[in-house]
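Example A, followed by Example B.
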Amino acid sequence: MTASKKISRWFSDTGVMVNRSMTHMFRSIDTIITVIAMSVMMMLLFIYVFGGAIATGAYSGSYIDYILPGILLMAVGSGVSYASVRMNNDVTEGIFERFHSMPIAKSSVLWGHVISSTISCFISLIVIVLLALLMGFRSSASILEWFEATGIILLFTLATTWMAILSGLLAKTAEGAGVFSYPLIFLPFISSAFVPTATMPTPVRVFAENQPVTSIVESVRGLLLGQPVSNDIWMALAWHVGLLVLMYVLAIRAYKRKMR
């Protein structure tokens, strides 16, 4: 088979797998609703319960403008956990072996989950941003800055989705597969997502300032509010690319071991 035919076959098979995953997803729309509902409840809690008591340092704008990037990352962390569960179901329920017996591009099985998970997350994020606008969020970003912020969140989604695929391949049960997402949901709390890191005790502040979520949040926040992002955007990109490559390599290795 020529290289062009292999590429064409890969796209065709991946499209089928994406369609399969999306069909399952929309038959169980509660997964998307759960991600949206949790994120909206977090926004309501922080804005209307904690917001009046939280100081954001030099930032003097609306508190929802400050916390929205962190809420979006938490939504991604929650959303990709379902990709891990679906991947694990394919492995433990014998569907994996059926696909391997068919003349399809083997990696399309993984990419189907990755692409459908990314689409699902972005549907959730769009709804969350629209609801945030109703709650008072305002952005002074240009179209280019919106695209840049979207690109950063897309890279974060891809990197964490490959982490989810790896977890789904390695876990013994569906419940265990989703556990990996807990740190992703928790990390924004120990970052600049909700309060400035300067307000934290020294050991916590050092961790918060040097973990990936802070640079990602600062980059997205700066872009959405039309503010300078300094070196944060390069740190965010470095974290994204490094994590994406690492998770992809480990997931492919785990996948090949399952194929033996």
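Example B, a separate protein, is given below in the same form.
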Amino acid sequence: MAPREPGRVRMRVLMEPRHGARYADILALALATERAGFEAFFRSDHLLGVDPHDPEYRPTDCWTTLGGLARDTSRVRLGSLVTAATFRPPGLLATIVASVDEMSGGRIELGIGTGWYGREHDAFGLGFPATGQRFDRLDEALAIITGLWATEPGAEPGFSFAGEHFRIDDNRTPPRPAQRPGPPIIIGGAGPKRTPALAARYATEFNGALGGDLRERYAIFDRACEVIGRDPGQAGHSAVLPVACGTTSADVQRRAEVIGSEFMRTHAAIGTPQHLTDRIAELAGIGADTVYLHIYDVHDLDQIALIGAEVLPHVPGAARPETGVTS
């Protein structure tokens, strides 16, 4: 990954619909994101919503829909924030992501984490080990995914891995992503030890998550890079910002009510385009070079257009809605 560009903030949309969505709804939001001039469109990887008993929630598979978006969009980068490593075996996940990357012409990024929503796993028959074991499995999964992507077809011997939780035996026909050696990997969270250590070893971008001292989390990650001899400047710092943006108090209130939880509302940018612009500038001042605007209403395309027209032109280095290119 290229070094961080001082002063530039990459602006992305992160979709986590309150009640789930159909593919047609997801595509409409992705296309609105592309038209508005954002650099990327990401989606969460969840099968349940905030309320696990919400009968209106419509689950969709993250990577199936990203495969559709890979063909139905043309410019925006696409990815997950974040894929639960508990959902798919790492060899299969490496192949899925590589396939979607090829379908998109090299526009895919993999955000990946341990998985955290126990009720979601129970509801879909997915195993949910204890926290320490989930970190161990994520560590092995990252070694397998990056190892498979870096292996040349026909290599002798092929890629092998023997861990406590996963085993790969002499794979000579590895998945072949369009990006080499593989799509960018995003790892993030609030943990002070294992998360930054894993990110230092494998991630092209560290996401500081919500709540707490974001500046300190970036500093901990940078120190973790230095411990293993990696230049911290070669990795990105990103932040998530829930958004309810409008030009009238009624629009702001309506959009704020859709935000999934009180915790999210506490950390959200709720207000005018100028307020959102100021919040993005604050995150950039802390050290974020990438900001994901967390959107909950999949049908509210007007908010995306508003941010594209009234906010992106005032964010240094962000794409412009008129051209879709960076300044």
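On Example B: Residues 161 and 167 are 5 Å apart (CA to CA).
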